[in-house]
């Protein structure tokens, strides 16, 4: 049944690590860090190589029951080794390059994008809106992700970006001020928690007054 992927049970016992480089959210290069030789930069070559190496390690199989546009449920068995590899790398890099709220909105748009594409509305105006919004969100998704492939698993083992929003000093609960260019004190979280708890306390009081109904 499967044409592109090896069964994870029969996949190589030795993992391989690849590095995928992105610019504006688009993969621009893939390197095999294990063999130290294979490098692809052409868009089609990148995708074909992702299919080949991920499929070799049993990545990308899925067996689901889905809903067709007409309302009928159907069973679908797919294999998308290259897409799975690229998606995992892209999502990981987004995690360090994209603002929290932008990321949250993108996750919602991703579901709507998938629905419209699946139902055949690629050229609909709402799809144009989503695609332009996604392109805007990818401006700072630049860097690379190192991924280990092993028996059906896609394991991120490293990432780097010059446009990362991650700041170790700012994230630390031990460094006052958050480092250079920041005015942040972990103790400020006490007031933040108290403010946010007002709504919860009000709701709890109402529930208690109503006998928890």
Structure characterization notes:
Homotetramer. With 213 residues, the chain is an alpha+beta fold. It has a domain of 120 residues: Alpha-Beta Complex (Argininosuccinate synthetase, chain A, domain 2), CATH 3.90.1260.10. 41% of the residues lie in helices and 22% in strands. The chain contains 6 helices and 7 strands. It has a 5-stranded antiparallel beta sheet, covered by helices on one side. It has a two-stranded antiparallel ribbon with strand order 4-5. α1 packs across α2 and α3 runs antiparallel to α4. The protein is globular and about 60 Å long. It starts with 15 loop residues before the first strand and ends with a helix. 20% of the residues are buried. The model has no long low-confidence stretch (mean pLDDT 94).
List its salient traits:
alpha+beta, Argininosuccinate synthetase, chain A, domain 2, two-stranded antiparallel sheet, 7 strands
Helix and strand composition category: alpha+beta
Write down the overall mean pLDDT: 94
Spatial order of the strands in the main sheet? 3-2-1-6-7
Overall spatial form = globular
* Percent helix range: 40-55%
- Terminal Cα span: 53 Å
The profile of the biggest β sheet is: 5 strands, antiparallel
Our Rg estimate from Cα atoms comes to: 22 Å
Could you give the order of the helices and strands? EEEHEEHHHEEHH
Secondary-structure arrangement, i.e. CATH architecture of the domain at 1-98 and 140-161: Alpha-Beta Complex
CATH homology group of the domain at 1-98 and 140-161: Argininosuccinate synthetase, chain A, domain 2
CATH class of the domain at 1-98 and 140-161: Alpha Beta
Number of helices: 6
Within the CATH hierarchy, at the fold level, what is the topology of the domain at 1-98 and 140-161?
Answer: Argininosuccinate synthetase, chain A, domain 2
Number of strands: 7
- How big a fraction of the residues is strand? 15-25%
């Amino acid at each position: 049944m499967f044409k592109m992927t090896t069964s994870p049970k029969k996949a190589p016992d030795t993992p391989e690590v690849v590095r995928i480089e992105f610019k504006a959210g688009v993969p621009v290069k893939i390197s095999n860090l294990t063999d130290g030789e294979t490098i692809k930069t052409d868009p089609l070559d990148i995708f074909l190589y992702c299919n080949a190496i991920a499929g070799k390690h049993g990545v990308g199989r899925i067996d689901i029951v889905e809903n067709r546009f007409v309302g009928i449920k159907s069973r679908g068995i797919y294999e998308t080794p290259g897409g799975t590899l690229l998606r995992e790398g892209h999502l990981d890099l987004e995690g360090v390059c994209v603002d929290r709220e932008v990321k949250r909105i993108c996750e919602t748009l991703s579901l709507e994008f998938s629905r419209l594409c699946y139902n055949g509305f690629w050229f609909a105006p709402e799809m144009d809106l989503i695609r332009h919004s996604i392109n805007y969100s990818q401006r700072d998704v630049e860097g690379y992700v190192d991924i280990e492939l092993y028996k059906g698993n896609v394991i991120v083992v490293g990432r780097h970006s010059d446009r990362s929003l991650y700041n170790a000093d700012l994230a630390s609960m031990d460094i006052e001020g958050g480092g250079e260019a920041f005015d942040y004190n972990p103790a400020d979280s006490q007031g933040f928690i108290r403010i946010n708890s007002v709504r919860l306390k009000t709701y709890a009081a109402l529930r208690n007054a109503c006998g928890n109904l």
